[in-house]
Amino acid sequence: MVDSILFNIMLVGALGIFSQWIAWRFHLPAIVVMSIIGLLVGPVFGLIHPDEVFGGLFDPFVSIAVAIILFEGSLNLDFREIKGLGRPVGRIVTIGAFLAWLLGSLSAHYVAGLSWGVAFVIGGLFIVTGPTVILPLLRQAKLKPRPAKILKWEGIIVDPLGALLAVFAFEIIKFLKVEEATATALLIFFLGSLFATLFGFLCGRGIGWMFEKGYVPEFLKSPVVFAVVIMCFTVSDEITHETGLLAVTAMGITLANMHISSIDDMRHFKENISVLLISTIFIMLTASLSVDTLLEIFHWQIIAFVLLMLFVVRPLSIWLSTIGTDLSWQEKTLVGWIAPRGIVALTVAGYFASVLLDAGFEDAKILMSLTFALVFATVVVHGFSIRWTAEKLGLASEGQPGVVIVGGSTFSTALSKTLTELKIPVLITDSSWQRLITTRKAGVPFYRGEILSEQTEYHLDLTPYEYMLAATELDSYNALVCTTFVPEIGRNNLFQLSLRNDRGDDLEELVHTIGGRVAFKEGATWESLNRKVESGYVFRKTNITQQYTFDKYLDESDEEIIMLFLKKPSGTLEFFAHDSQTRAEAGDVIVSLMPPSKEFNRIREKLEKQRNGDKNGKTKDE
């Protein structure tokens, strides 16, 4: 074991980000990869033991990280997102959450053998699913809109509520357990909680007001939010112990519902800082587990508790809470099965394990074993079964990974029709009915609305789409769209039309800093592509085989042909772009835009060759 604090900080950070990269590269649940790596470097090989190395800094660091993670969850709790989602979501996040807390607490007491105090604390915590876990699974599984929307918003709404419920349960039970506890002491606790809520609200309003009035420059917005979150947590926690989590959650909810213009900047902040903290903290927590903790996971009580949570508590709470709604039995079954617990559950459980032990709850020592068993089991089982379950229930999106085309035009419509012929889902979005005329006439799926509007994410489900092409006549808008969707789609799958260079400006340098990858070949601008389609250019689909190779295809092509994309045998797409050396292989289909005369000449030459072959055959026979 290496005792250097600096080395341990470097190692846990590097391992956390490396785990995230491995998960992204091989399409695995990140929490599973982090769990395995943390266990390998910690209890298995004993390379690091962060709890021993960091000593007194370990718990404060975890506490601050938990506060930031909770702030992240509450920052997504925009009350506008609850409206229009229907009765099912409302029932699940209220009645369903209460039932899950009650049934989970009963299971923790009667099956896992925990005392009532610890059982009700952990029961409240285990109702969370968490957006950091459920959203990657939804992108991977490609569910139909209804179940995907329910699971998505349940994760966002219940995530901070579960931790809050655990905090309240802990504080109330702790006061009730102390023999000398009086009504005055309990009143002081509630006043402290009220102060934390009010303080968090004021911090949120203050930050929002300063951002709206321009009192904070752009480059300081993220650091200011980071500093205020830590201050909000620390001050509240020092005044009344354990209320810091309540304060930062109230702060996040306040900011989320102020609808200020800088909300995206704060979300960008949490997507950077929180990912780093989540990765680091998870490695630290799993590496700090002892071998005894891991062995406790295989105790029959813990195994029985996990099975009960998987097959009884979650399904029963969903089925009971959605009685009288319009959910089908298939949707109830899928939603009742999928409930992965994630990083928030494990980090907050580690936090409560120490404070419960300090409060005299000796049975809290198995809390980490219990939580890790549930987290690991749910993420693995649900992560690898969600797609299969959805397909069996008929709730998986059909077809190949889809394409979103931003900007209605003649070219966009023609390209969409070609994608549809290849059985690839496609959607054209534009804020103008006028620009969608050709799209509507062609019967291509479309969405009329501003793709950059916050309201769009409430009404438009982009889960089935893995690629985006910004194809408007405005270069700056195309770049802005691609830059905005980098976190959701990834730059490799974001494309924009070639930048116009009418004034001779060196605009090509723009794509190196912002925007998506420049699609197709040089000169394939919005004007040129639409002009070609309107003049009769056609979309040609060419099969590449062992005999008809990509090199032969290139030899037969001329400068007027524009290669658009490849469709792989697996169904994935690969767009031709300026910054890539895309090559087709046997089994691929190349879609290109070519002049009609070329197509007619190829057909005529092919027919002539066939006729000549028939004549030659007859001559030989004669």
From TrEMBL:
Region (Disordered): 601-622
Record domain RCK N-terminal: where: 403-484
Intracellular or extracellular location(s): Cell membrane
Residues that span the membrane, as ranges: 6-24, 31-48, 54-71, 92-112, 118-138, 150-173, 185-207, 272-291, 297-313, 334-354, 366-386
UniProt topology in membrane: Multi-pass membrane protein
Keywords: Antiport, Cell membrane, Ion transport, Membrane, Transmembrane, Transmembrane helix, Transport
Domain of life: Bacteria
Matching InterPro entries: Cation/H_exchanger_TM, Na+/solute_symporter_sf, NAD(P)-bd_dom_sf, RCK_N
Domain Cation/H+ exchanger transmembrane residues, every copy: 21-391
Name of the protein in question: NhaP-type Na+/H+ or K+/H+ antiporter
Source organism: Guptibacillus hwajinpoensis
